[in-house]
Description:
Elements: H1 3-6, E1 8-9, H2 20-29, E2 35-39, E3 42-47, H3 49-62, H4 69-72, H5 81-84, H6 98-108, E4 112-117, E5 120-126, H7 127-137
Antiparallel strand pairs: 1-5, 2-3, 4-5
Amino acid sequence: xxxxxxxxxxxxxxxxxxxxxxAAARLKVSRLHVLxxxxxxxxLGVLKDKDLEDAAARKAQEQGDHLPYLISRFLxxxxxxxxxxxxSTATLEPAQSLGQAAKAMxxxxxxxxxxxxxxxxxxxxxxxDLLSSLAETDQ
Length: 139
């Protein structure tokens, strides 16, 4: 089975100029575990909850605060996604197999990866998509 048959098309995305707090809210409601950062449809990177946690911790340290992570989220209010995002460590193509997707996720220790075609984001494939596919074949 191919990635294009199981991926989430038109996933929730953010831009580099999205406020970090807004991105945190979108990430919380997203089932994707990762938000693609795009500009004009082109994938620039990804944003994970860990990126936001790290940014809040750095900001707290700069200010000499030793606040717990949940309280320190307010420290993100002056940051944009471009300040905390990471370049995408890996991407997949729609015509690759689900096995290749699973191998890439294991290799990069992630729960989801962007799917790109001709440098444009076309979807996201997640561990949940892979498990759903596996469960269906076992019926």
